[in-house]
Design goal:
Number of helices: 16
Protein name: Peptide ABC transporter permease
Strand order of the largest sheet: 1-14-23-13-3-12-11-10
Helix content: 25-40%
Number of strands: 27
Low-confidence stretches: 1-34
Keywords: Signal
Radius of gyration: 23 Å
Number of domains: 2
CATH topology of the largest domain: D-Maltodextrin-Binding Protein, domain 2
Mean pLDDT: 91
InterPro entries: Peptide/Ni-bd (IPR030678), SBP_5 (IPR039424), SBP_5_dom (IPR000914)
CATH class of the largest domain: Alpha Beta
GO cellular component, one term: periplasmic space
GO molecular function, one term: peptide transmembrane transporter activity
Largest sheet: 8 strands, mixed
Structural class: alpha+beta
């Protein structure tokens, strides 16, 4: 999930924590810098033209950036939709994009944006302050359909448009995350015609119109999404490497669930880029001359989200036993390369405000058993702990095909300490329905966003609460960090929230989410955004 749920992130100065962490970026082969880079050794200037074919492991039910947080889908709609600001993948500094400048009052309650002149949507409609106002209001009205977006704009008191190039957004209380949020696709700008379309139509890409360098040519869910270059684009972000039209004529995202099929298609020349490169395939591809690029996603890492409405999770002894009963290092050593680190806390290491909590997460099977026995659990004939006739077992909703071995090894590890795990594998779209119905014990997923406010969006039980977290003092902490009047105070409150999340085992961190992309040497200018999604405006194909 990403900014996600798998399904469900700004030039005055960088809005950063006092101790800004350098993004943990890994690149191998002939890969490049933190934001990606030249992946081959092409001579001469960038070349225009050509179709880029990308094989990705999964799709989602919705393409609309206001409604979806799916990691792969954001890599699609980012090419179509621009944002008010842009965020550098390495420094997390903000730069102008559709807004050429902005001012923020000292209390973070008033944000004034001066918009770029001459910007149009691909249908010819002018981009102006009224469109910004309409987009923000539309996101708020989507409510549960835009869980992340609604949380980003919550508390807006008024939106004024004194002239076509000025927007003033006022909040009823401080909003520490809003400026950063304006760099995301979730708050990306759609044309007025798109805002009038039915949400389900936008999900399928019908009428999805942005100001970006590409348009949606066609979309068949779970099969392919095709983007076409837009002529006349001339308002790229300050972080872009060029101005004017994109280099590529077309981008085709093909859904190829099987890792071996994606690798074979890359090797045969049917695809130029693939995602989800399995650890066992990395040495083969690298030795064959393919370039590899990888970056850990910021936000909430791969975790087990716990449905606290289920009896199994209402006992803190069980939650804590699972948390310290998983041998994360064994998972990494057995199933992953050194590109993927074990989680060290409730936030990924590339996230602003990250705190190393690895001591609290340390593997300790003896203590896990002791916690259960002290809470009155005893072993039954099957070797599982039980209490009042109820065995300690839970199911895991798993929709990342490459992560199945991870869940299977966790299943073995927990069985050794007397806890049963049932794996329920399904597609991402199938899991959406299961999640909404509450028919699950745990969901294995991640959420991507460089700002730690993602914790409030996902875990605050008084909000959308997609994972049915239980009410606790955590709610007040997460709400307080979002409205903190100073960065120092926000950092302090966030630290308390992170401690609570791990100490109470609100969720179970496993590993930072790292998507390894493999590509042919013809791919140049490959870059990530700050959420580790693709930015293909500067990408081109060498002859």
């Amino acid at each position: 999930m990403s900014e996600s749920r798998h399904n469900r992130q700004r030039r005055l100065a960088a809005i950063t924590f006092t101790a800004l962490l350098t993004s943990a970026v890994v690149a191998c082969g002939s890969g490049g810098s933190a934001g990606g880079g030249d992946t081959g050794a092409a001579d001469g200037p960038p070349q225009s033209g050509g179709s880029l074919r990308i094989g990705i492991s999964s799709d989602a039910a919705c393409l609309d950036p206001h409604q979806t947080g799916n990691h792969n889908v954001i890599s699609m709609n980012r090419q179509v939709v621009d944002s008010l600001t842009d965020q550098d993948a390495e420094t997390l500094e903000l730069a102008p994009w559709l807004a050429e400048s902005w001012e923020v009052n000292p209390t973070n309650t008033e944000f004034t944006f001066t918009l770029r002149d001459g910007v149009t949507f691909s249908d010819g409609t002018a981009f102006d302050s009224s469109v910004v106002k309409a987009n923000l209001e539309s996101i708020a009205e989507l409510g549960p359909l835009s869980a992340l977006g609604a949380a980003m704009v919550a508390g807006i008191q008024s939106i004024d448009t004194p002239d076509p190039r000025t927007v003033v957004v006022r909040f009823s209380e401080p909003n520490a995350q809003f400026l950063t949020a304006t760099s995301t696709t979730t708050l990306g700008m759609l044309a007025p015609a798109s805002l009038e379309a039915a949400p389900e139509a936008l999900c399928n890409g019908d009428g999805l119109i942005g100001t970006g360098p590409f348009t949606v040519e066609s979309r068949t869910p779970d099969s392919a999404t095709v983007l076409a270059k837009r002529e006349g684009y001339n308002w790229s972000s300050e972080f872009a490497e060029h101005t004017g039209d994109a280099y590529l004529d077309r981008i085709e995202f093909r859904i190829v669930p099987e890792s071996s099929v994606r690798v074979g298609s890359l090797q045969s020349g049917e695809l130029e880029i693939i995602d989800g490169t399995a650890p066992q395939d990395i040495p083969v591809l690298e030795s064959s001359g393919f370039a590899l690029e990888a970056r850990a996603n910021p936000g909430i890492p791969m975790v087990l989200f716990l449905n606290r409405e289920k009896p199994v999770w209402q006992d803190p002894a069980v939650r804590k036993a699972v948390q310290i009963g998983i041998n994360r290092q064994q998972l990494m050593d057995t199933l992953f390369t050194d590109l993927t680190p074990a989680s060290k806390g409730a936030l990924a290491a590339t996230t602003n405000g990250f705190v190393d909590q690895s001591e609290q997460l340390a593997y300790n099977p003896d203590e896990a058993r002791a916690l259960l026995e002290e809470a009155g659990y005893t072993r039954n004939g099957s070797g599982l702990y039980e209490k009042n006739g109820q065995a300690v077992t839970f199911d895991v909703i798993q929709f990342y095909a490459n992560e199945t071995p991870t869940i299977e090894l966790m299943q073995q590890q927990l069985a050794e300490i007397g806890i049963g795990v049932e794996i329920r594998a399904m597609s991402s779209s199938e899991s959406d329905a299961v999640e909404a119905a509450g028919d699950w014990d745990t969901i294995y997923a991640h959420w991507t966003r460089p700002d730690p406010d993602i914790l409030r969006v996902i875990l605050d039980s008084t909000g959308e609460n997609p994972y049915r977290n239980a009410p606790s003092e955590l709610d007040a902490l997460l709400q307080a960090q979002a409205v903190a009047p100073s960065q120092e105070e926000r950092t302090q409150i966030l630290g308390q929230a992170l401690d609570f999340i791990v100490d109470d085992a609100v969720l179970i961190p496993i590993h930072d989410f790292v998507n390894v992309w493999a590509m042919t040497e013809s791919v140049q200018g490959f870059t990530f955004d700050s959420g580790s999604r693709l930015k293909l405006y500067d990408t081109w194909l060498s002859s």
